Amino acid sequence: MSNKDHITEAFIQLGRFISQFSSEEVEKKENILYNDLFFDGFKHQIKLAKEYNGWFTKENIRFSLDGWSTQLSEDNIKQWLNNYNTDQVTPKTVAIIMAGNIPLVGFHDFLCVLVSGHHVLVKQSSNDKHLLPYLAKYLEHVAPELKGKIKFTEDKLEAFDAVIATGSNNTARYFEFYFKNKPSIIRKNRNSAAILTGNETKEQLDLLSEDIFRYYGLGCRNVSKLFIPKGYNFDAFFAAMYKWHPIVNESKYANNYDYNKAVYIMSEFDMLENGFLMIKEDQSYASPIATVFYEYYDTEDTLKQKLDIDKDLIQCIVADGFYKNEIPFGKTQKPELSDYADDVDTIAFLLEI
User: Fold this and answer.
1) Name one Pfam family in it (predicted).
2) How far apart are CA 46 and CA 56, in angstroms?
3) Residue ranges of the alpha helices (H) in the chain?
4) Full-model pTM
C-alpha cells in the first residue's frame, strides 16, 4: 500500500472513530483502531469546544461529526478521488487559514491537502481550536507517515508554498495583498438563498427550516435570504419554522434576537416575526442572526438573471427544479466531498501548485 493509500485509509478509520460521537448518546464501539487511546480524550475535547464557544452546542458538534463520519466512508472517499490523478504530485506545504463559525469548518480543506499528497500548515480560528488538532493526532497514529506533514501554528505563517484562506470581505483584501506571490484560494463572505414559488409542500418547508436554523444560521451554507413571488403568503412558512422555537432558549441566540428586533423597531423597519425569527424585506444576502431577508421577484427569467449576476455573493441556492446546481431543501448543511466552497475545485488547485 502506497503512502497516499495509507493516508486515505487513515481518513476512513477516522470516519469510523468519529461515528461514535455522532449520535445523541456517545457510544464506545468495538473494532475501532486506537479507541482505548483516543476515545475519552476526544470526549474531553468536545466538552472543551462547547465550553469555550457558546455557539458550539453539543447538538451542533454532533451534527458536524455525523456529517463527516458519513462522508469519510471508503466508498465516498474513493469515488471522490477517482476523478483525480494524484500520482505525480511533488509534496509542497500548503497553509490553511481557517474560519471558526461552525465546528470543523476547515476540515474539508485539511482533508484535500493531505489526500492530494501535500503537507499542511494550519492556522485555526480561536473559536474552533479544540477538535481538529486532536483528530490530527489520531490520523498520525493510524498513518505514521503523516508525522511531520501536519503542523498547527498560532504565529505568523512561514515556510509555505501555497495558501487557502477563508475570512470576511475585509480580511480577504488583506489576504490577497499579503499572499499575492503565492498560489492561493481566497474565500470571502458568501451566503445562501432559497427560491420559493408558493407551491412548496409542508415537507419541503420543514426541510428549509433546517437550512435556516442549523448552526444558528452562522454558516455560509445557511439560507439567509428568500426569493418569493409577489403576493406570497408566509403562513405556511412560519408554521414550518415553528418546530425550531426552542432555539430562543439558547442565550446567545436570544441575545441576538432581542438586539436585532430592537434595532428594527427603533428604525421603524417593517418586519414579520414569530417570537424567535424575524423576516424583513431587504436586497442584501447577509442577514443578522435570527433574521432572514426576503426579496420579491417578478418573473423566473429576471430572477435567474439576478442570480447569475450575484453568483459571487452566493454559496448555495435551494430550490426545486428552478436553477442550475440547485440544492434540495434540507441539504445545505450536508455537503458531499465534491461540494467545494465557492465552487472552486480545491483538489484541482492542489494538483497544479
Assistant:
1) LuxC
2) 9
3) 3-18, 35-52, 58-71, 74-81, 107-115, 131-142, 169-178, 202-213, 235-241, 251-266, 300-309, 346-352
4) 0.96
CA 303 to chain centre: 26
Phi, psi dihedrals of residue 143, rounded to the nearest 5°: -130, 90
The mean pLDDT value of the chain amounts to 96
Report the 3 state secondary structure along 187-246: ECCCEEEEECCCCCCHHHHHHHHHHHHHHHHCCCCCEEEEEEECCCCCHHHHHHHHHHHH
Triad 258, 260, 262: Cα angle to 5°: 65
In angstroms, rounded to a whole number, what is the distance separating the alpha carbons of residues 310 and 189? Answer: 13
Domains and CATH numbers, the chain: 3-189 (3.40.605.10), 191-318 (3.40.309.10)
C-alpha 215/C-alpha 206 separation (Å) is 16
Under 8 Å between Cβ of 245 and 275: yes
- What is the per-residue pLDDT across 155-204, written as a single tens digit (0 to 9) for each? 999 999 999 999 988 998 999 999 999 999 999 999 999 999 999 999 99
The C-alpha cell that represents 326 in the structure block: 440547485
Q: 1 pLDDT band (50/70/90 cuts)?
A: low
Sheet holding 272-273, edge to edge: 272-273, 278-281, 291-297, 223-229, 191-195, 314-318
